[in-house]
Amino acid sequence: MQALARAYQERQPWVMFTVEHGSAAFVAEQLASNQAQLGTLATLPSGSNWWLTDLATDAVAILAHEQNTRQTFSLAELRAIFAGERNQWSDFGVSGLGDIKVAVREDGEATRNVFDHNVMGDQRLTLDALLMPSADIMLRYVALNPGALGYVPLSRLAQQRLSVRAIPIAGVSPTPQTVASGEYALTFPVYFIAAGEPTGSLRDFVLWALREEGRQVTASMGYSPLP
């Protein structure tokens, strides 16, 4: 949202934005109380009266240290790791890293929702999992711990230059192309959301964001723009 607002203001300098960050619940509260006019969310709040439109597609990137030589995981292998059933890197042909240090996001966060639904299913998470309160902290933790395994939005990974990499799932790497095609397993939509359909200058901004110039900004931030 910050990148889109900044790019739009360069073209329409008389339009002013204030951008705030917060959880899905915070965004929904701000919109419902008319303290905000437009939001971006991947986890939709409760209720059926929201105005929504698809903005882009993101993905859950399985995050490992760059020293980790593991080439790919299946969803079943990830489930066994995050359930604590297999907790040694040697179980997966990786030597010298010892225990697998599992890191997860907080319950209700978008990547956690996608990961739990598509990977864990009804399997319970290991009690040894470390809770990371933000994607930035997750990235730094994995960058500092060669034995760690976590996940972040692919869009955040694309903006980092830390000692981390994304491990493919079933041989498919998370890229804008595999995310857009649906070939990569762990994708999720990102929405524009508002209490009611935008009008006036806000509608102009939304339409610009969904068209070519806005799509270029979205792609530059590591997201996969929609057709």
**Major sheet:** 8 strands, mixed
Would you identify the CATH architecture of the largest domain? 3-Layer(aba) Sandwich
Task: Give the overall pLDDT as a whole number.
Answer: 93
Instruction: Find the count of extended strands (DSSP E, 2+ residues).
Output: 8
Provide the CATH topology of the largest domain: D-Maltodextrin-Binding Protein, domain 2
The radius of gyration computed from the alpha-carbon positions, rounded to a whole number of angstroms, is: 19 Å
Under CATH at level 1, the class of the largest domain stands as Alpha Beta
Uncertain residue segments:
none
Determine the CATH superfamily of the largest domain. Answer: Periplasmic binding protein-like II
Alpha plus pi helix count: 9
Q: How far do the termini sit from each other?
A: 19 Å
Can you characterise this structure?
- With 227 residues, the protein is an alpha+beta fold.
- The protein has two domains: 2-55 and 190-225, D-Maltodextrin-Binding Protein, domain 2 (3-Layer(aba) Sandwich); 58-181, Periplasmic binding protein-like II (D-Maltodextrin-Binding Protein, domain 2, 3-Layer(aba) Sandwich), CATH 3.40.190.
- The chain contains nine helices and eight strands.
- The chain has helices at residues 2-11, 24-32, 75-82, 110-120, 135-144, 154-157, 176-181, 200-210, 212-220, and strands spanning 39-41, 51-65, 101-105, 130-132, 148-153, 164-166, 187-194, 224-225.
- Strands 1, 2, 3, 4, 5, 6, 7 and 8 form an eight-stranded mixed beta sheet that branches.
- Helix 4 (110-120) links the parallel strand 3 (101-105) and strand 4.
- The longest helix is centred in the middle third of the chain and has 11 residues, at 110-120.
- It is elongated, with a radius of gyration of 19 Å.
